[in-house]
Amino acid sequence: MDGGDLEEAIDSLHNLEGEIEFIQKALSAILKYPLKELSKRLSVVESAKLHVSLAYTLNSLFYMYLKTQGEEIGKDHPVKKELERVQKYSEKIVNAQKRKEEGPKRRVDAGVARRLISAGVKRKF
Description:
By secondary structure, the chain is an all-alpha fold. Helices cover 79% and strands 0% of the residues.
C-alpha cells in the first residue's frame, strides 16, 4: 500500500466516522422514547413506516458491519434476504397509501341492482 492509498483509506475512515455519528444522532432522537409509546402517538401508516424504517436501518448497519469485517455477502446471505423483505414491506405501505388516496374502486353493477330491486318489489306482502 503506497502513501496515496493510505491517505485515501484514512479519508474514507474519517468519512465513515462522520456518517456513523450522524446515524447515532438521528437514531438517538427516535429511540429515546420506547417504541410502543411512539407507535401509540402515530397513525397506523406512520407507525408502519417507523417500524419499517427502523428495521431497514438496523439491517443496513449490520450489513455494513459485516462488510467491514471482510465477510462476503451474496444474494443468499440472511442479511441481504432480510433487507429485501423489509423493502417489500416498504413498497406495500406505499401501495396501500396510494390506494387509500385514490379511494374505493367499487362500481355498482346496474343489471344486478335492477334485478334485486325488481325481485324485492314484486313480492307480495
